């Protein structure tokens, strides 16, 4: 009888553990893998946007507006590949596709209604990505723009800026500290930090951080 009781208990406990793994652990792992995959896609898009930057004509190399146009064009291509909607300014003069809160958003919705963007029949379902870019080199402006990313719920938060190589690590430390100080976070949050390195002949820098400001990936 005692053996039967232990067997039943073992079966029940084993079933509970298996259910927990399937319903909690596996979805979380899939979610993290997707966020990491999305980060790799963004890294490639940023690299494509600034390919050959050091050899661009002066008027393009020194134009933040041109940099933004290049970056947004690559993100448009990625959004099309991922079959998601993208919002940023400008997009062909169509106000329905203009900037929504952040410089760039990748959104999952049921489409665009005739009357408004987020209508009852076309609700916003998920924010895959938000991106802020700051081409000013002042630390204050950089951290101000980055802090906007702390308050949004998204699969991936991306920050693109451009500073001298020797300034990148101190600014990255400030970004890590900002994440760590913010209390409304989850460790599973992901922040992709991208530096278009100065001088422009240097390779781009990418660091993926978690919701505690810890490095998960660097290239």
Give a short overview.
With about 220 residues, this protein is an alpha/beta fold.
Give the SSE layout.
Layout: H1 2-49, H2 58-61, H3 64-82, E1 85-87, E2 104-109, E3 124-134, H4 139-147, E4 156-161, H5 165-181, E5 190-195, E6 205-210, E7 215-218
Parallel strand pairs: 3-4, 4-5
Antiparallel strand pairs: 1-2, 2-3, 5-6, 6-7
Walk me through what this model shows.
- This protein has helices at residues 2-49, 58-61, 64-82, 139-147, 165-181, and strands spanning 85-87, 104-109, 124-134, 156-161, 190-195, 205-210, 215-218.
- By secondary structure, the protein is an alpha/beta fold.
- The chain has a seven-stranded mixed sheet with strand order 1-2-3-4-5-6-7, sandwiched between helices.
- The protein is globular and about 85 Å long.
- The termini are far apart.
Poorly predicted runs are 18-34
* Overall shape: globular
The secondary-structure class comes to alpha/beta
> What is the helix tally?
5
Task: Provide keyphrases for this structure.
7 strands; single chain; 44% helix; alpha/beta; 219 residues
């Amino acid at each position: 009888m005692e053996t039967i009781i232990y067997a039943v208990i073992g079966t029940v406990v084993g079933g509970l553990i298996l259910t927990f793994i399937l319903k909690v652990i596996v979805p979380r792992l899939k979610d993290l893998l997707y966020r990491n995959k999305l980060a790799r896609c963004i890294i490639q898009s940023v690299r494509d946007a600034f390919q050959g930057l050091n050899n661009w004509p002066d008027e393009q190399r020194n134009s933040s507006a041109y940099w933004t146009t290049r970056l947004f064009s690559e993100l448009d291509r990625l959004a099309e590949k991922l079959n998601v909607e993208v919002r940023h300014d400008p997009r062909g003069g169509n106000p329905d596709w203009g900037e929504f809160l952040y410089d760039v958003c990748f959104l999952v919705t049921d489409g665009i209604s005739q009357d408004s963007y987020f209508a009852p029949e076309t609700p916003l379902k998920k924010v895959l990505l938000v991106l802020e870019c700051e081409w000013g080199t002042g630390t204050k402006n950089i951290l101000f723009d980055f802090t906007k990313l702390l308050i949004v719920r998204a699969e991936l938060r991306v920050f693109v800026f451009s500073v001298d190589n020797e300034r990148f690590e101190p600014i990255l430390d400030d970004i890590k500290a900002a994440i760590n100080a913010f209390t409304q976070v989850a460790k599973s949050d992901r922040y992709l930090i991208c530096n278009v390195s100065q001088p422009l002949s240097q390779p781009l820098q990418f660091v993926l951080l978690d919701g505690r400001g810890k490095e998960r990936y660097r290239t």
